[in-house]
Amino acid sequence: MLTRLSRAALAFAVVATCAAGAAAQSKQKMTLVQMHPIMGVGEEIFLYAVPKHLGYFAAEGLDVGIQNTQTGMVSAQLLQSGNAQVGTTAGDAILAVRERGGDLISIFNLKRNPGTFMIVLPDSPIHKLTDLKGNSIGAPSFGAGGGLALKENLTQIGIAPDQYIAISTGAGPSAIAALKSGKIDALVVWDAMLAAAENTGMKLRIVHIPLQEDMVGTTLATSTAFADAHPKEVGGYCRAMTKGLVFTMTNRAAAVRILWDEFPNLKPTNLDDATALAHGVHIMDRFLDMALQDQPANAPLGGFIPSHWDNTLAAFKTIGTLKGTEPASAAYSTKFLTACNDFDRAAIVAQAKTWKQ
């Protein structure tokens, strides 16, 4: 028979359990979509793994899932359809969707420099774009991203498509092998792809693509309709994500380990732990070097560079993929930047510095 005390304890336990269940059920579900197909060391660390692992999402009352897609246009379409609520995409994809009647907006600038450039072997005679005349150039694609920007940049400086050989190489190890073997003279890559090649011990030299560096990089977007209906959730996601970014900036090794904890299949099995961690940190270093280029110290994160949006619109209008029916400024909003940065940054830095697995 239950005593009065045990009955009271049982009642308290039932109430506590129900309250916990109600709290769990009350979490707002959100889906984060990414503009690349394969999960790995990159922005998914601070966009998802760190804030999930450390409870930043839970503190905002959010239950966030993640999915990957093939391109920025696909992720933009998922956001516009409502099948994802926040996600990474490209500036030109947002502009294109808006020209078709969509209401996508960027709410946080993830990369101040797009992080796409050209690489050559150290002894290559190619030092600037004008040196590409008569040479073979590889790129994951010449119909989008850095490859398309390079084609337009070469046209601007008077080098026609028939004055070089453009080869679509894909983005895997075979592209790097083609450069190493001399099958191509230069290769368009992004920061993580470069870092992965450097992790093999390969020595490479960067040749900048000026047009690409003055355009919008990876950006965090949502639909205006979702943002207007759920401002608390959008601000909460962005704040949790920005906490994740500050943590990652402070302790990159810890952030990589957290990624492995959340996605054990991503931890390399062909390397010892120390080497695998060093490689992951190097990839994150390359990413953050571009993402935070010229970021003012201790300034709010995620601020937009208006000229990059104007340049993106102008370039893709020239290429013919955009009509320019509205100003580039309509494609981004500073509305949530205060909420994104509204937390004790010093506390997150301290947490990162003292974090132990």
Report on this model:
48% of the residues lie in helices and 14% in strands. The protein has 357 residues and is an alpha/beta fold. It has a 5-stranded mixed β-sheet, with helices on both faces. A 5-stranded mixed β-sheet has the order 7-6-8-5-9, sandwiched between helices. It is globular and about 60 Å long. Mean pLDDT is 91; it is low at 1-24.
Shape: globular
| Largest sheet, spatial ordering of strands | 2-1-3-10-4
Alpha plus pi helix count: 16
Can you tell me the residue ranges where pLDDT is under 50 for at least 5 consecutive residues? 1-24
The chain-level structural class is: alpha/beta
Oligomer classification: single chain
Quick overview of this protein structure:
This protein is of the alpha/beta class.
Key attributes of the depicted protein:
357 residues; alpha/beta; five-stranded mixed beta sheet; 16 helices; globular
Tell me the layout of helices and strands.
Layout: H1 4-26, E1 28-34, H2 44-53, H3 56-59, E2 62-68, H4 72-81, E3 86-89, H5 91-99, E4 104-109, E5 116-120, E6 136-139, H6 145-156, E7 165-168, H7 173-181, E8 186-190, H8 191-198, E9 205-207, H9 210-213, E10 219-223, H10 224-229, H11 231-250, H12 252-262, H13 273-291, H14 306-319, H15 337-340, H16 345-354
